[in-house]
Amino acid sequence: MKLEREKYRNRIELLQGTLDMLILQTLQWGAQHGYGISQALRSRSSEVLQVETGSLYPALHRMERQKWIAAEWRQTEQNQRARFYRITAEGRRQLAHDRSKWETMVAAISSILEA
Amino acid sequence: MSLWRRRLGSEDRKAELDAEIEAHVRMATADRVARGESAEEARAAAEREMGNLPLAKDVTRETWGWVWLERLGQDFRYTLRQMRRSPGFAATVIGTLALGIGAAAAMFTVVDHVLLRALPYKDAGRLVLLQEGGHTANYFFAPWVDIEQWKSQSGSFEDVAFSTGLRGRTYLEGKSAAVQVDGQAVSSNLFELLGAKPVLGRGFIVEAPNFVAGKNTGTIVLSNAIWRAAFGGDKGIVGRVVRVNDVPYTVVGVMPAGFRYPAGTSAVSGQVWTSLQLDEKDKGRGYDSDYYQVIARLRRGASVEAVTAEMATIQKRVAAQYADAEVREAHSIVRVVRYSDSLIDADVKKALLALLAAAGVLWLIASVNVTNLLLARSMARQREIAMRGALGASRGRVMQQMIVEGLVLSGAAAVLGIGLALGAIRLTRSVAPIHLNVDYSTHVDFTILGALCGLTLLSAVLSSVWPALIAVRAPIEPALKQGGLQTGSGRRHNRLRSGLVAIEVAMSLTLLVACGLLLRTIYTLRHVPLGYRTDHIVVANLSVPSYRYVDKSVTATLYQPLLERAQQLHGAQAAGLMSEVPLGQTFNIMLSLRMNGNDISAMLKPVSPDIQKIFGMKMLAGRFFSKEDTATSEGVAVVNPAFAAEYAPNKHDPNSLLGMKVWNLRKDTPAHIIGVLDDERQKSVAEVSQPEVEICLCQITPGSNIYQPATVAMDLVVRTGEPTAVMIPELRELLRQASPELANSTFSTMDQIVEDSFGSQRLAAHLLEIFGGAALLLCVAGLYGLLAYVVTQRTREMGVRIALGAQRGNLLWLVMRQAGGMLIVGVAAGIGLALASGRLVRGFLYGVEAHDGWTLAGAAVLLLVSGLVAAYLPARRAAGVDPMEALRSE
Q1: Which range marks the domain in which residue A49 is found?
Q2: Are A58 and B65 inside 8 Å of each other by CB?
């Protein structure tokens, strides 16, 4: 189990930039709770990306601390109380920044791979 | 407050996070149910998918940023629980560390007060004393004409000031009674040079020293302490007239609290400074010129070495102006000494540093001991630690917990240690030699607190991090599988712990040897024949208000009547007067004269005739003074063997001195030698005697050339059959009747004075007794602890051995052999260490060598025997193991 903890940490590290970006992108379409975000990421990636709880919630709470997203308790359509996250102005700026960085990187990597 | 709010908030947030995750699970479950799974299956599957939820929450909480605080709290609580569960262990650890920390803190406090004491002056590092002297004689003080030339010829000083103590004892008349003070006549620029300003009044107006009355004539500055003591802190004191030794002075200032000059002054209740007025005698370098203490402030950037070199050149020209060749030699050198360095006696410095080292060693022993204890416990807790690891605790987390434990234990030890240190300091106050001059009144300062915190931290790190590291590094699985006993790593740790015990033994031996050497020194010193009896003698060091006797004979009006009345005291068998009792170290008069073409330098002691009887001194030749010697009879003197050895016409026959003229008591009244006393120890038990001349007190009259020095200080000596506690109040009352100031005299007994004269040796011996004893105790406890642990660990092995036919004696031998091994290695290393550190104590020893074989052997035997006794208990338990019990219990 000790190893498992390390595993979580590693994954967060690996995905840090990307997971943040994906979450922010998801929230672009409207406020969403944790479960909703994980479902959205899963379905939009055609079931390829599965975000684990152990990565998702630490990321959400960290981004909340960084003021990229804000949270409030609301009722879902199924009458379930859940914590909804919405993107802030600062979050949008961060998303734009992450995105351009990502695109540069993808372009660079693919130009290497295709060379 | 804000911390609390955060703590409270954290509980809310924790609940919120739980609710958030729970909502997640519910929604996931609801989706699965919607897809057709049963409610139970759906819930289980959702939870499985989400993984280790508590861990996920834990990691999430970490992002909040203050979990460490919560964990610290957890660890702290856990530590307290541990301590409650095994109070014996906690008490041992805390007690041991407290002993070490207390000893080190107490010694550091004393060292700090004596050696690192900050001088109460601005930029004190640039203050130097200029001391004039020769290659053989050290005069220290300089006449004004020389000071004047240094000032004009040297470019290294910002300013030069000078001062001299007021003659005789100084009494300031306060509101009610006269108080004895330290009085100094100082040049007007002294306070400015020291960077001190009065808190009341303007102080002295700085002007060039002159020979006619100036702006400061007849003015005085008071120290803060005496202003409060004698005038009740009266703010209107400035401008008023006060009397010092019956001379009126106008108060022009009160100095701030804590200011003192000279900085070494401490014994008397306060200080006064009068403005120094030069007179005709200061224009020359004569026998009767005044000699001054000279203090200078160096220019910024001027080094002591450079100034010393410069002064050497200047002094060549200055010394050339002394006419007499011998006197010129005695003034040929100027020493430039940092003021702070001049205040510390080199002997005391050495003693204190050596004791600090000893305290440090004791602290090390304590730390090693505690490390050993914690190591033992971490072995015993290997299983618990492995279990924590298996449950997901990271190594850092386990380390943190053990370090918190160490910190709590050593923190408690530090608190206890401070208590011990304060107690110890109070204790040393009563044994500290007077010349140690420690000012205990100052509150605990930050250097000491800082050093203490450092010590505590260091102790904690030393004693808990290491065991923690070892415990954490151990692999988890074997510990869990085997129950943590008798593994290979356990053996290795036992070797490590044996090594630690051996180190303890070695360090303890070093302390014991040092202690033994000092005890032998004290023993030897106590058995040096002193040349006089010391029992049943009460001594009053009179504080003579000499100003009251300026125009009358103090001998006739004070001393003689005092003697007669003291003799009639109930219980007094005899009473005598002597300027300074042997070993008194209060006051001595040096006599320089010519006799038979010899230059003689001798100590001079005016005494009354009964002194010989009281001290039981023997005569080598001639007679002592008697009632027949009076102010009008022929002048007489008695000398000691050192005098005879140096100046007698026939060095082997003291009788050849009898009848020789020493010098003139008065004009036309020569003093002849009438007797030679047997040898007596004068300044210290360890020092051989110097030439000494004694004269009869009754023959010293105001006309005598030595009247002033010979009458200013006097010890009243009474031989009595009564206990000291009864005699001293009676004597004090008698003195009060003679003159109120005399009631402030200090009382002692001759036995006590001899004891006090052992000074630093006695202090060192007492402290080393404590340190050595504590070290022995710790090291025995450490040995016992280790063996007891090993025996418990090997109970099963012992059982098997017995079952296989081993004799009980064999088992006893098995354990004792292990103990013996540690002891022998430790003692061998300790002997090496003791020999190497012999250098440190050599300066305090008398009549014993630093590498004294008997002391080494004695200490080694003491350690070996105590160690083997400590080992015997666990060994007997090992031998007494019941094989059936031992085998069944596993």
Answers
A1: 2-114
A2: no
CA proximity to A58, closest of B26, B776, B220, B60: B60
Name the nearest CA neighbour of B773 among B451, B519, B418, B410. B519
The CATH number of residue A37's host domain is: 1.10.10.10
- SS3 state at B121: coil
Please name the residue of chain B whose CA is at the shortest distance from the CA of residue A65: B64
Backbone angles phi, psi at B498, to 5 degrees: -60, -40
The answer to whether B139 touches B330, Cβ cutoff 8 Å, is yes
Over the stretch B786-799, which tens digit does the pLDDT of each residue have?
A: 788 778 777 778 88
Q: Do β-strands B170-173 and B241-244 pair in parallel, antiparallel, or remain unpaired? A: antiparallel
C-beta atoms of B23 and A80 within 8 A: yes
Tens of pLDDT, residues B806-833: 888 888 888 899 889 989 999 999 999 9
Nearest CA in chain B to A81: B23
Residue B59 to residue A2, Cβ atoms within 8 A: no
Strand, helix or coil for residue B623: coil
Q: Whole-angstrom Cα distance, residue B339 to residue B194? A: 11
For chain A, which residues lie within 8 Å of any Cβ of chain B, measuring from their own Cβ?
1-2, 4-5, 8-9, 12, 33-36, 39, 52-54, 57-58, 61-62, 65, 76, 78, 80-83
Contact B648, B673 (CB under 8 A): no
Residue with tokens 């009610």: B176
Query: Pick from A2, A12, A53: which is nearest to B389 by CB?
Result: A2
For residues B811 and B798, the answer to whether their CB atoms sit within 8 Å is yes
Q: How many structural domains does chain A have? A: 1
Q: How many CB pairs under 8 A join A and B?
A: 87
ipTM greater than 0.90:
no
In chain B, residues with a C-beta closer than 8 Å to the C-beta of A54 are: 51-52, 55-56, 59
